[in-house]
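Notes, p. 3: input format for complexes.
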Amino acid sequence: MDNDKKPKTDYLGFYGLLLIIMLVFNSFLLPGITKNKVNEVDYSTFLQMLEKKEVEKVKIEDNKIFFTKKTDSEDKAYITGKLENPDLVKQLEKSGAKYSKDIPTENSPVQRFLLTWVLPALLFWMIGRYIVNNMSKKMGAGGGMMSFGKSNAKLYVKSTGVSFDDVAGQDEAKEALTEIVDFLHNPEKYTKIGAKMPKGALLVGPPGTGKTLLAQAVAGEAGVPFFSISGSEFVEMFVGMGASRVRSLFKQAKEKAPCIIFIDEIDAIGKKRNSNFGGNDEREQTLNQLLSEMDGFESDLGIVMLAATNRPESLDNALLRPGRFDRRVPVELPDLNGRESILKVHSKNINMDDNIDYTQIARATSGASGAELANIVNEAALRAVRCRRNIVIQEDLEESVETVIAGYQRKGAVINDKEKKVIAYHEVGHALVAAAGKHSAPVHKITIIPRTSGALGYTLQIDETEKVLMTKDEAIDKITTYTGGRAAEELIFNIQTSGAANDIEMSTKIARAMITRFGMDEDFGMVALETINNQYLGGDTSLACSPETSSKIDKAVVEIVRRCHDSALEILKENIDKLHEISNYLLKNETITGEEFMDILDSKYEITPNPNKTNDSFENDDNQKMVEEDKDV
Ligand code: ADP
Ligand code: MG
Ligand code: ZN
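Output follows (633 residues plus magnesium ion):
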C-alpha cells in the first residue's frame, strides 16, 4: 500500500510504447499479411500472357483483373488494371482461361486500415486494461484508471492490514479516533442528541510516534472508504495542479460519502500564508482551495477529515479554526508503559526468549519514539542472526538499545594505550560524580568500547522510575555529572581534551534552560527569556530579551557551569583512590555493569556528597532524556 507510483506517468508511458509497437508491427509484419500473393503486372504483360495461354483463372472486380498463372507451382495471384476493352472477353475465351472466384484479392483501404491500426490498437488496449485492472486490484485501490490531473489519493475500501491493536500506548489518541469511526458507523446515535461530529481531526506529535500508523489503523477499522494522500503530493510542477487535485479529491469523496480523507504531513500545504515575501502562490492556491472545500460540505454528509503533522505551530490559523480541523489529537512520545507495550507489539512476530524483561528495556529508552523502539527490536533480531541464534535474548535487546543510541561498536578501531587511559578516567569521572549526587540516576553501565557514532566511550544512567519533572537539584547534579569527565582529565593527567565537547554542550544547554525557561535563577526569577520555536522538532529556541539581559544570561550560565565543575573536581579529589581503582578495572574489562561499579564503590569507601545544593523544585516541561550518554569521550 506504500506504492506511490503516480498512475498518470504510467499511462503516458504505456501509450507511447503502444504507438511504437504498432509502428514496428505495421512496417515489418503487416505487409506480409495484407499484400501477400498479389503481384502487380502491366496490362500489356497480361495480354502477352493471355496470348501465350499462360493464364489459368481470372476474376474481374472493381475495374481490376485478378488472375493466376498455370506455370506457377504455388498459389500466386496477379493483379492488373482493367482497360475498357470490348475484346477482352473474346480474348479470354480464346486463351482458355477460366473464370473463378477463389483468387486472393487485394484488401480494400478500409479493410487495411482496420487490420493495421484499429485491430492492434484494440488488442493492446485490452491487454493494457487487463494489466492495469490487475495492478489496481493488488494495490487495493478500487478507483478507476485514467487520472490525468485527478487527485492521486489512494483509496482503501477494505482493510489496510493495520488495526488499532497494532498501535500500542496511544490510548487517548485511539479513543478520540474510535469515536470518529463509531460516528461513521452509527451516525444516528450522535444526531439523536443533536451532537455534531467535528469535521476534522489533526494528529500532532513528534516524528515516529505513530501518527501515520494511527490513520492507517482508522482505515483498517472504519469499514468506510478511506482516501489517503500526503500533503507534498499536492505540490506539483504545474501551477494550478494542486488546487485541481484538491477539488477532485473532494469530488471523489462526496461521491463515496460516508468516508474519511487523510492528509499526511499537512504542513507541506498548510504553512502560514505570509504577505511580506510574495509566498508560494501555488501552495497558497492549494491551501485556499482546501479551506473552501472544507467549508463546502456539511458534517452530516459523513466526510471526516484527518490530517497529521509534526509542526502544528507552522500551520495557517485558518486551518485550525472551528469548523475545520477543530479537534487536536496529541500523539506524544510514549511513557514507560507505552514503550513496554510498543516493544511487545513489535516482538510479536519475532522469536523471543521467554524470560525477556521488557520493562527494563523500556526504562532504558526514555524519550524514544515508537519508530525507534521498533528499530531497537529489529536490530536485536538482526544481532541474534549475526550471532547464529534463532532466538532473541535480553542481551540482544540491550546491545541494540546502545546501538540505536550510540551507534554500532566500532570493531578494529585502534586507540593507543595512553588515550585509552584518559578515556577510562574520563568515563569513571562521570560515573563517580553521578554516584555522589543524591539526585542523579544510578549508573547502569560504563564502557570504553568505541562506537561508530564517534563516541569513544560512555556512561549510561537509567532512572528507576519514569520522570517528567526535573528539580533544580537534579539539574545541578546533571551538569555536575557532565563536567565530571573533564574534571577527571584535569585531576589525573592535568590535561584538557576535545573529548569533553559533547559534555560541554549538554551542560551549557541545561544551565541555560535553568535560567531562561525554568526560572531557577534568583537574579532572573520566573521570567521567560526564551521561547521554543518548534515543540516537536528539535525544540530550538530564540531569545526573547534585550541584548543587555542576554549578556547577563551568558555570564550566569558560565557561573553555573563553573560552580558545578568545581564541585565535580572536589568530589573526585576526595575519592581519588576510587577513581584509580575503578578506572583500572574499566581499562582491563572495557565494560562495567552498574552492579560491578557499585560493588567496587561500596566495598571500602564512603563517597562524599555534593555540597552544592538547594531545595527548590520547578517544573521541567522538557521531558529531559534520562539516559545520559556521552557522545564524545
Ligand atoms: P509518524 O507518522 O508519527 O512520524 P509513523 O506512524 O510513520 O510515525 O511510525 C513509524 C513506525 O514506527 C510505524 O510504522 C511503527 O512500526 C512504529 N510505531 C510508531 N509508533 C508506534 C506505536 N504507538 N505502536 C506501535 N508501533 C509504532
Ligand atoms: Mg508520518
Ligand atoms: Zn564525557
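Residues 349 and 381 are 11 Å apart (CA to CA).
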